[in-house]
Amino acid sequence: MRSFKLRNFRSGAALRLVEPSPVADACRENSAFIEALYSEYHSALGHYVTRMLPGGREEAETILQETYIKLLRLQDLQPLRENPRAYLYTVATNLVRDSLRRQLRRRADQHESFDEQDHASSQVSPQGSAEWQQSLQQLKQSLLRLKPVTRKVFLLSRFEEMTYPEVAAALSISTRSVERHMSTALKHLQQELNELL
Amino acid sequence: MSPTHTTDKAPRKLDGTIREQAADWLARQQSGTMSAAESDALEHWLQVDGRHRQAFAQCQQLGLMTAFLKDDPELNAGLPEIRKAVRRRSRFYSQWRWVSGIAAVVLVAVAALLVRDYYAIDYYQTGIGDQRVVHLEDGSTLMLNTDSRVGVRYRRAQRALFLERGEAFFMVAKNPSRPFVVNVQGSEVRALGTAFNVALQAGNVRVAVTQGVVEVRAQDAGGEPRQLAKMLPGQGVRYTAARPGDNSGVMPVNLEQVTAWQTRRIYFDNERLEDAIAEYNRYTTRKMVLVGDALADQRISGVFNIGDADGLAFALEQGFGARINKNNQRVLVLEPR
Question: For residue B60, what are the domain limits?
Fold first, then answer.
């Protein structure tokens, strides 16, 4: 389906190029600009994305293609021109996020069976590419360096999708502090995982 | 919208300030309590600079990646046990959010039927503020307190029940050849003909016996099942589900207090105010929120009706000079001026 979209779009772009008009010129210019940007960032962005999802280089390549398509579809290139790197990384990150969400949902579906082992403890072994495993390790180490209460707040919220009031109740703190701890955790992670981001 | 706020020479790497702002914004957004003005402000903040959007997206990304570490033993080690009890529910709800309408109902119903037939575990559960009495096929009776879930699997040799969250009272029909065993996060509460109460809250298990003899077994450090306590009516035990060695030993319990919920009452006996409010909140979605620490350690005694915010609020006003601020979603308890 993805490759279909890609092909479809490219033929669309080609059609537009046929018309000899100022609009077509602008289009061509934009396409060239995007093309240049894309190849400039392709390698760095590829490494970035590979670290951000389990599926390795292959899944990353799909994300890159989707990123490219998104760029080509842009009506207004101004934000892209202002800060191409930020723009590209945002688009790619958002696409990665959609993909991760789908995978988490699938995982949850698989867990949803009430098998007997569930009453003991079921461990799911982590999978994914070496890069992904490495990122998760870094993330884990960074999480372990958080103050315990901040870590608990963050993990309860992230692991169990607990709301702030639920987390607050579980840890006997205020919802206001939950928000503070969430923010502290995010600051800490961004800082420590700067290389990753 | 054509933002001209930023220059072409924006730095390539994000600076710390932007990252901090992004963290604050995401933490704020996740609270689910942003005002319209705050939403607009966030929207504006995202619009004015591509780096803001990037930092925000990356914060979301870090949160999402963390979810992939959900089964990591080291990260789980420090977490309160409550998470295990809510785990299945949250999965259920998170799926629920993705599908909607009748299709979802049908899907879930079919899945539940399949699972039930195959594993022969019946689940009974209650929502917040609900209670429910279940008569089981052997003549035993199960009473579920608020926000609770119990699985029942009857086999010829054993009646196995699973308290997955919340609290339940068990009145057991006597049958010596078929033990009645309530499993609570790895520990077992065993009974012959008896009545007893089991509560699971924030990873702590409380057992109280009103009739007969009840035995609690749990695995010791070596994984061997061991007797933790044997109790008579009026006795109880408290322990941490994850570390049953961490227990109170057999102690006398106030049965009136333990069973008050069965008549939709909450009984506070010299309880810390903060704990009392947490207890009150178990029964309602309109949570009572204690603001500030000044009142947290005050002690409160008394009997209140479940869900009666006005009654409790009145007592807090009169007894502690608390200021009450109510709306439809919550009841704020503020410190005395």
Answer: 16-67
